[in-house]
Amino acid sequence: MKLRLKHLALGLAAAAGLAATPLWAQHNDKPLRIVVPFASGGAQDVIARYLGAKLTDKLGAPVIIDNKAGAGGIVAADAVAKATDGATVLLATGGAITIAPHLQAKLPYDPVHDLVPVALVGDTPMTVSVRTESPYKTLADVLRDAKAKPGQVTYASTGNGTVSHLTGALLAQASGVNLLHVPYRGAAPALTDLLGGQVALIVTSVASIEPMVVSDKARVLGTFSRVALPSMGTAPTVGEATGLPGMEVPVWVGVMAPARMPAASVEKLSAALVEVCNLPETKQRFAQLGAVNTCGNAAALGKVITEDSQRWAKVIKQGSIKVD
């Protein structure tokens, strides 16, 4: 009996010691590093830093944010795919994961085999918008004019091969019209030319267009979202405005890990991220950034990635889209 009590006491002590050990440290002795494929200051960087602060509390371990901008996210994705420390993950978006494989003849990593989904955390919806003085009052007006004048109605994007470019191409292909794509180096110069009347439309994120809407300089004709977005006023979804299916385009933000990361670490991190994503304050913070918190586990992110990759493969092939 004394021996049994001794073993029980030892077992309870071990369990207590494990419970007292920070969640991340139970599986890893290194700080978590989140690699962000954008420069500091942008919406995705702010999302990463918010998640990092919350994860520090949830995991009981420090979280480092590492900005690696370049090549549309390929630099960051490659760095994470090759990481061997078991503590490095990627704040992933479609550019390097679901778009680049269909535009680049060869990537330095394989997004399917070298990276694994951890969690889905957000959506940064796209819009199609015009300047306030535009004669186009609805998306139907735009498509009617585009059918009458093929290749003459212009839309600005944030660059060749970006989700902004491809979302505009998706709209044109689904509508059976020929919109003239005008690529820019980012949203700022594209918005400048929209407001100056050099281009008729812009396809860009809620975060980029919202300041123009608030100041009454631009008007949103439609959002590429499943439901209308309160921050965009009375703007309908593109699906509602056109009656076309397949106009819900999740511009997803998720976390991915190297395929070699231990499964236990992936599972713990996934659970912690979903908890953080479901916090009411996360919804509020993301809304301030023009994002929607779309919480999901690894399977949910995997499903979004598969659907996104299929969507852009079709758009790129149908449009014979290439990048320099």
Sequence-ordered SSE layout with sheet pairings:
Blueprint lengths: L1 H19 L11 E5 L6 H17 L3 E5 L6 H8 L6 E6 H10 L11 E9 L2 E6 L7 H10 L5 E4 L5 H13 L4 E4 L3 H10 L4 E5 H9 L3 E6 L14 H5 L9 E7 L4 H15 L2 H9 L3 E5 L1 H22 L5
Helix pairs in contact: 2-10, 4-12, 6-12
Q: Which tags fit this structure?
A:
324 residues; alpha/beta; six-stranded mixed beta sheet
Give structural notes:
The protein is an alpha/beta fold and 324 residues long. The chain has helices at 2-20, 43-59, 74-81, 94-103, 139-148, 163-175, 187-196, 206-214, 238-242, 263-277, 280-288, 298-319; strands at 32-36, 63-67, 88-93, 115-123, 126-131, 154-157, 180-183, 201-205, 218-223, 252-258, 292-296. 45% of the residues lie in helices and 19% in strands. The strands form 2 sheets. Strands 2-1-3-10-4-11 form a 6-stranded mixed β-sheet, sandwiched between helices. The protein has a 5-stranded mixed β-sheet with strand order 7-6-8-5-9. β1 (32-36), α2 and β2 (63-67) form a beta-alpha-beta unit.
Cα-atom radius of gyration? 22 Å
Separate helix tally: 12
Quaternary status of these chains?
single chain
Span of the ends, CA to CA: 77 Å
Taken from the alpha-carbon principal axes, the silhouette is: globular
Instruction: Strand order, main sheet: write it out.
Output: 2-1-3-10-4-11
Helix content: 40-55%
Secondary-structure element series: HEHEHEHEEHEHEHEHEHEHHEH
- Counting DSSP E segments of at least 2 residues, the number of strands comes to 11
Strand composition percent = 15-25%
Instruction: Give the class from helix and strand content and strand pairing.
Output: alpha/beta
**Mean pLDDT, nearest integer?**
91
Low-confidence stretches: 5-21
Largest sheet: 6 strands, mixed
